[in-house]
Amino acid sequence: MLxxxxxxxxxxxxxxxxxxxxxxxxxxxxxDGRRNLRTLF
Length: 41
Known about the structure:
This is Type II toxin-antitoxin system RelE/ParE family toxin. By secondary structure, this protein is mostly beta strands. It has strands at 7-14, 24-32.
């Protein structure tokens, strides 16, 4: 996945595990990293 700085991509994998195959990846949010990230959560 390619993205230019200063953007950050938050994503979720299915299943949510460190091992085994990943069946899908869902992009949850694209964040502009120049902003204050604490205000987003």
